[in-house]
């Protein structure tokens, strides 16, 4: 009977359900997205190699280019890197400088890539500090850096576009009008969070500065500890050495950022937590508003069906029967909105996850919680209309209209 009553006013029921749907959609879509990103955090954020930490001018996970406190920092230049290398000596496994130039186009004969390549000036430690592997040919060498050779190692996307039949090693390509010999190719790495890591070309950092200039450029410096046991000790020593290379006084605060896979993951968790709280607050407000809407619709329904209630009571329906019918109507409205919101929210969240190449997930915990919350809202906001319907005097109800 409750189900049939809802079907008799399809438009009104649909509009009431939409309020619950919007509330649940907002929280489920956000939670699905966050869960999908967290499930891919090890593969997506672990772009640094094992036992690696990095010094940089800017934080690793937040876009702060417009914030003056970071923008006004001194750049980390090549001389600072050389000083740092001398200071740490053999206490670390490797030290890798990195400086980038974006939106570069590669050309080979009559073939061209899209102008979206990232050219990185670095040394032989790049593949270790960034989890790359050589597929064909060789890596950069210390001699390449020392002699500023015109050589490069290209990513899979560049290889497929310029050399679809293979055989890239030994060929000469042009980057921004300058010639480089391909000495190696990277194994495929794929995409993570919308960034294609196969669109990468590395050249010796000394050649990078000669071709692209060193003014207004800041290096990232990756450092690898000997092993996990001495990781924290190595990081502490390296921070002291880097401060000395930057000529900071003991009372000066660090004018650089230090981050690792763990710190990036922790930063992501903090951001995700704030997003969750925001989504929860917004959804709570939306659901309360939807609950008020359910109460309003049910009160209207009680008024419209006063005569029906009187007839049912005169035929022997008890107060609890009337109360149950109207509570079930409110519960059905809530649950239909909940399931609609969950389906749409999961679809939207996983759609975004698929776009950024994160793992597709189903947030069972949040979905189950959403069903329980919506059930509670239906019952709580349906309680007063149901009680009002059950309390009607059958004689007065029959005389209504």
Q: Could you list some keywords that capture this structure?
A:
401 residues, twelve-stranded mixed β-sheet, 15 helices, single chain, two-stranded antiparallel sheet, 2 domains, elongated, alpha+beta
General description of the model:
The chain has two domains: 2-42 and 266-399, no CATH class; 49-260, no CATH class. The chain is built from 15 helices and 14 strands. The chain has helices spanning 2-7, 10-39, 41-45, 68-71, 78-88, 126-129, 142-146, 156-162, 205-212, 231-245, 261-304, 306-314, 319-355, 364-390, 394-399; strands spanning 52-56, 94-104, 106-108, 111-112, 117-122, 134-137, 151-154, 172-175, 178-186, 191-192, 195-196, 200-204, 220-224, 257-260. Helix 2 runs antiparallel to helix 11 and helix 5 packs across helix 10 (231-245). The radius of gyration is 32 Å and the shape is elongated.
Summary?
The protein has about 400 residues and is α+β, with helices and mostly antiparallel strands. It has helices spanning about 1-5, 10-40, 40-45, 70, 80-90, 125-130, 140-145, 155-160, 205-210, 230-245, 260-305, 305-315, 320-355, 365-390, 395-400, and strands at about 50-55, 95-105, 105-110, 110, 115-120, 135, 150-155, 170-175, 180-185, 190, 195, 200-205, 220-225, 255-260. It folds into two domains: about 1-40 and about 265-400, no CATH class; about 50-260, no CATH class.
What's the helix and strand layout?
Blueprint: H1 2-7, H2 10-39, H3 41-45, E1 52-56, H4 68-71, H5 78-88, E2 94-104, E3 106-108, E4 111-112, E5 117-122, H6 126-129, E6 134-137, H7 142-146, E7 151-154, H8 156-162, E8 172-175, E9 178-186, E10 191-192, E11 195-196, E12 200-204, H9 205-212, E13 220-224, H10 231-245, E14 257-260, H11 261-304, H12 306-314, H13 319-355, H14 364-390, H15 394-399
Parallel strand pairs: 5-12, 7-9
Antiparallel strand pairs: 1-13, 1-14, 2-5, 2-13, 3-4, 3-8, 6-9, 7-12, 8-9, 10-11
